[in-house]
């Protein structure tokens, strides 16, 4: 990878054995020019890890960046986007900037801004090119330690999402189908499998029903089919009891390395208290989103939602406008995930 404008020398599926890879590496000509690391990372993120270029779903994505001296462009933004799409960035830096380069230094702490985590695991500094071979073993060991490749987890592939659906009489059959379409549209955005994001659903009236648990469906298509098959129940509205039920039936079975996300959809005021069940869920690490329609009560929606309310609580006057919230909910789930500390 190089310089003013990056290009691919060979992609993930060009060579099928290590001998061919080694030969191909030896044939790479040096380009000369500037050290545009930010541009290179942006290029890798947009082009390199595509399925069409040989990316395999289950395998972690790793980018090892070798930098001699100092980048001549900004790396922060390109690195953030690469991390957020699941790329584990390692940096091997060789020497510091020489006197000529020092005046072009844009980000003095560029390594910490670029690497997957700032705990030292993702960066290696060597005093000169001659010392590079000494770090090969260390680097290989780290890249192969898949449990520590923290950036493989993204907002779309590492959640257990429990959807809690109001099936009370006021909803009605037609609107219930609209709710299910909304639930399907949210689910569609995630990478679903038994090791990635998992989805479960509860429907409630006075009573509660587990429609399907987190471990029931392990492909996106199965989840979408299961959502379609949910039958409208009709009855009262005990939202508090439904939150307790979701905590027991769904979130108590959540995996420890998954973010627990509850999305509750209701069209009216609850017959029971929602505050205590919601508080208990929050204390157990559940991030709660509330979506209210028509007669839903603002105070209850805010009690159910995780703070800050304005990012976790939504209200629409009619069912047909539900679809508008899909991008916002996904965006907020991702913003929250991506704002975790990187140390």
TrEMBL record:
CDD domains from the UniProt entry: vWA_collagen
Record InterPro entries: ECM_Assembly_Org, VWF_A, vWFA_dom_sf
PROSITE patterns: VWFA (PS50234)
Residue ranges of domain VWFA in the record: 1-139, 160-329
Gene3D superfamilies in UniProt: von Willebrand factor, type A domain
Protein name: VWFA domain-containing protein
Source organism (scientific name): Chrysemys picta bellii
